[in-house]
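Forgive a beginner's question, but would it be possible to get a protein, spelled out as residues, together with the matching structure tokens, please?
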Amino acid sequence: MSGATDIVAGLNGRNTATPTVASAMGGLDQAAFLRLMTTQLTTQDPFNPVDNTQMVAQMAQFSQVAGIAEMNQNLRALVSSMGGGRFTEASSWIGRAMLVQADIATPLSDGTYAGELSFDADADEVSVSFVDAAGNTVHTMDLGAREAGATAFHWDGKNAAGELVATGPLQVVVTARAAGSPVQPNIATWTGIAGIQSPANGGESRLVTGLGLLKPEDAIRLA
């Protein structure tokens, strides 16, 4: 059998045909495969021709791999198209605020701090404290008894005299009790969206917020 026959036989792989053809696809297109097949037919040993079953198997393997390659191209195009849509949608969020799962609160555009607590059961006593980076409590609010579910909290960032006492990120510390035992709710805070960052390499876009770069899907809801 000629050299061309040996090449095609190698592509056939006998016991590992599909992986062999798949690995050759990086440098073998449809035209090259047809040239190899033609060479095989014209140079085969007339006393030992290529078996028809092997030839059909080779063609089927090539068609399968070519189809997978085309499907992958279509999927990449679809993902790219969807990514552009998400970018357009997320860009419309600039200037708004998003509620995210976090125990750090950042001042909104009006200087206020806001968030939401979620309790699994009723709580008898609930208080929310705002703590600065030095560990100082700058404000505490008493929310009293709260039923199970979501409870919103809000602070204007000022003391009783109306003076602004907070201008940066603050940790939200919640103290809550139910039937005398401490309970811990889920904490979410509102943060402003200042812009959107889209990597030049086509990676996933990120929202520029007071809490840093966040994914659009991190938003529980918008305001």
Summary: The chain is about 30% helix and 30% strand. Confidence is low (pLDDT under 50) at residues 1-5, 11-25.
